[in-house]
């Protein structure tokens, strides 16, 4: 039988006689497109069919037999490579070709929207285990979103799956796959070759997300893993010992573990072959992979519901790669990859080059005042000049500054700013290059860096915290401040004369795509929970009061998004861990380009300045002063038990600009809690912070550490 290429050659020879058909080069392109993938076949078939219709419309005589032969061959391809089918094990993907020897498309040509989670066809019926594969809980109708790009045909079953002990792998969109693996190496092989799991890159220069398999307790036991990490050493290190049978199986199958070993988040990989990544991320649910503070109630859900929660997070944020803090940091790199393909002007070859606006591939030492006391830059240089102290507020107003009128108000009402650090990251210009030292520089609010300035001459209002220190006290002498703090002193009308500074010449809004993606995720998830932007303040407060009860799964996603923001900022200055650490030694976090305490300081400085600006505007507009501030939460005395009783509104009923405003977007406020004024004053007299407890219990201060 003649091959397809021979058939093409014979048909082309005949079709060349038809002057109104597409030229041979165009037909060759259509053939190539039709023979590679199902999606590209559909495009080629549609294009060719349209060409045939155009050809027929332009001629009065019937279609020629030669054209019929060409169409029959295409129809044969359509039958051989069907576009839609039920979920089946994916064949082993062929190695990706080398990078194209041509310049990449301009950045503007790449859609900025994130890829939508693939929507797979229904899973085939499995008579032996129909009861073991319940469908995921129905998803609530989502708010209308902008058009999203089509699903990636390489990952038809979504970014992840939750594997149960009976071999059922629950996908993100309610599909259920059969996983025959009985060992961890078999699970890795199945995931990469048959599962159809993964997610497309978030940036044209980035990498596709590795597939994630979350293991339930029964699945872990089936694969030879302990249900829980037990024993002093295992609990302390949170990983299996190197002589554990599963670790040996992985090594014997020629797979590798990262330096963290086999813990709650285990990454199993082989070295990259060409452009193909061979890596699978495992999350062990019974090993506390999903922290209850970030993922409330998720571990206790059914596998299908866990898959739904993780899948929505993966679609809107990123496929989880560890804790929410780790995922927040990974998201920065995924959206701003350090390298891109550039053409060598001498050889003409495409090589890896620096991607403008990123942090690059090499770690960068901070300036001494930006480092931590144990950092080698400090220890080895003998630095004694002080450090940046840009932290979130922890301030309680002196009780003796309360007036009789304030003490007679019946309520203390707490307001919480939505993702205050995320709001601060918007359009935030940070340094991209190494710091340079300057003596007695003239202050420039547009240059990111650290400035040694004496702000002790500025007398703060005792009813407000100082904007220059985390505890709200007045500075006592020269100290190091981030650019935003010094700029705010200038905004308040004070002269600033830096003594010295560490500044960066190359700058950029590195966190912009990170901010935009997380803001969209936060707002869309709140909208799915019924808290939309079109609500007035009264309806907004009512919707926020009940939103967590509407859908616990989406409420958990919302909590994880918020934890991703704070944890990601905190990871920018990760401290050394472990009792064996010695001061002056380098710790693992220092080896990544995203260890950038100066960027963390910029975010927190801007957030604290934003808070003080609102506090001052509130005092000017309403005459009210706060009782306490804790990070992004502020407590006010109030005549009523609602923020509506003291927030400033214009005669038209609209909120006054400049103060605290209620709403669902980052930087706007929501109700944190209500207590009696007597309760708040009692805590203040005990030097306790009412903002920490006004919600009930003990709020966890997370200032991005």
List the helices and strands and how they pair.
Blueprint: H1 4-15, H2 24-34, H3 38-57, H4 65-80, E1 160-163, E2 168-171, E3 176-178, H5 184-193, E4 212-215, H6 217-222, H7 232-237, H8 245-252, E5 256-257, E6 265-273, E7 276-284, H9 303-316, H10 324-335, E8 339-343, E9 350-354, H11 376-381, E10 394-396, H12 404-407, E11 411-417, H13 420-425, E12 430-431, E13 436-439, E14 449-454, E15 478-482, H14 483-491, E16 500-503, E17 507-508, H15 512-528, H16 537-550, H17 552-571, H18 597-622, E18 628-630, E19 633-638, E20 669-676, H19 677-685, H20 690-693
Helix pairs in contact: 1-4, 2-3, 3-4, 9-17, 10-17, 14-18, 15-17, 16-17
Name the descriptors.
33% helix, 7-stranded mixed beta sheet, disordered C terminus, alpha+beta, disordered N terminus, 20 helices, 705 residues, 5-stranded antiparallel beta sheet, globular
Concise description?
The chain is built from 20 helices and 20 strands. The chain is of the alpha+beta class and 705 residues long. The protein has a 7-stranded mixed sheet with strand order 3-2-1-4-7-6-5. A 5-stranded antiparallel sheet has the order 10-18-19-11-20. Strands 13-16-14-15 form a 4-stranded antiparallel sheet.
């Amino acid at each position: 039988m003649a091959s397809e290429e021979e058939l093409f050659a014979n048909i082309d020879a005949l079709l060349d006689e038809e002057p109104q058909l597409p030229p041979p080069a165009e037909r060759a392109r259509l053939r190539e497109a039709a023979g590679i993938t199902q999606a590209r076949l559909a495009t080629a078939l549609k294009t060719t069919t349209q060409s045939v219709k155009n050809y027929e419309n332009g001629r009065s005589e019937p279609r020629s037999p030669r054209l019929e032969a060409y169409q029959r061959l295409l129809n044969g391809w359509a039958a051989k490579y069907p576009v839609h089918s039920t979920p089946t094990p994916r064949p082993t993907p062929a190695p990706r070709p080398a990078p194209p020897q041509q310049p990449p498309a301009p950045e503007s040509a790449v859609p900025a929207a994130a890829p939508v989670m693939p929507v797979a066809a229904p899973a085939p019926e499995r008579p032996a285990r129909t009861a073991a594969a319940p469908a995921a809980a129905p998803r609530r109708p989502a708010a209308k979103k902008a058009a999203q790009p089509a699903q990636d045909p390489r990952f038809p079953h979504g970014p992840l799956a939750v594997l149960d002990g009976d071999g059922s792998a629950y996908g993100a969109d309610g599909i259920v796959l059969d996983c025959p693996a009985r060992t961890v190496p078999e699970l890795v092989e199945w995931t990469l070759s048959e599962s159809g799991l993964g997610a497309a890159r978030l940036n044209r220069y980035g990498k596709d997300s590795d597939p994630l398999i979350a293991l339930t307790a029964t699945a872990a036991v089936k694969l030879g893993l302990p249900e829980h990490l037990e024993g002093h050493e295992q609990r302390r290190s949170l990983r299996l010992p190197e002589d554990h049978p599963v670790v040996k199986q992985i090594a014997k199958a020629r797979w590798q573990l990262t330096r963290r070993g086999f813990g709650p988040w285990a990454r199993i990989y082989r070295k990259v072959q060409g452009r193909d990544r061979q890596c699978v991320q495992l999350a062990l649910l019974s090993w506390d992979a999903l922290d209850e503070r970030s993922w409330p109630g998720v571990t206790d859900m059914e596998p299908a519901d866990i898959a739904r929660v993780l899948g929505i997070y993966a679609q809107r944020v990123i496929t989880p790669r560890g804790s929410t803090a780790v995922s927040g940091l990974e998201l920065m790199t995924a959206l701003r990859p350090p390298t891109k393909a550039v053409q060598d002007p001498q050889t003409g070859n495409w090589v890896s080059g620096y991607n403008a606006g990123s942090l690059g591939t090499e770690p960068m030492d901070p300036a001494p005042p930006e480092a931590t006391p144990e950092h080698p830059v400090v220890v080895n240089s003998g630095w004694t000049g002080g450090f940046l102290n840009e932290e979130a507020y922890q301030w309680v107003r002196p009780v003796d500054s309360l007036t009789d009128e304030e003490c007679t108000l019946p309520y203390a009402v707490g307001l919480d700013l939505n993702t205050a650090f995320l709001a601060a990251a918007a359009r935030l210009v940070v340094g991209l290059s190494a710091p340079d030292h300057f003596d007695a520089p003239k202050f420039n609010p547009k240059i990111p860096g650290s400035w040694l300035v004496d702000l002790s001459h500025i007398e703060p209002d005792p009813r407000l915290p100082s904007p220059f220190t985390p505890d709200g006290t007045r500075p006592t002498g020269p100290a190091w401040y981030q650019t935003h703090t010094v700029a705010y002193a200038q905004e308040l009308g004070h002269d600033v004369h830096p003594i010295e500074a560490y500044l960066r010449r190359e700058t950029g809004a590195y966190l912009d795509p990170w901010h935009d993606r997380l803001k969209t995720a936060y707002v869309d998830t709140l909208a799915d929970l019924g808290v939309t932007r079109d609500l007035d303040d009264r309806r907004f407060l009512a919707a926020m009061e009940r939103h967590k009860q509407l859908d616990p799964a989406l409420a958990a996603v919302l909590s994880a998004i918020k934890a991703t923001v704070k944890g990601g900022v905190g990871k920018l200055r990760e401290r050394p861990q472990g009792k064996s650490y010695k001061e002056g030694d380098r710790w693992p976090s220092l080896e990544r380009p995203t260890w950038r305490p100066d960027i963390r300081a910029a975010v927190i400085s801007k957030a604290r300045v934003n808070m003080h600006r609102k506090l001052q505007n509130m005092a000017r507009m309403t005459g009210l002063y706060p009782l306490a501030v804790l990070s992004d939460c502020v407590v006010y005395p109030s005549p009523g038990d609602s923020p509506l009783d003291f927030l400033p509104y214009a005669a038209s009923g609209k909120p006054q600009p400049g103060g605290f405003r209620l709403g669902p977007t980052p930087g706007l406020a929501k109700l944190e809690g209500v207590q009696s004024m007597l309760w708040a004053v009692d805590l203040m007299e005990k030097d306790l912070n009412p903002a920490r407890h006004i919600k009930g219990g003990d709020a966890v201060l997370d200032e991005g550490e």
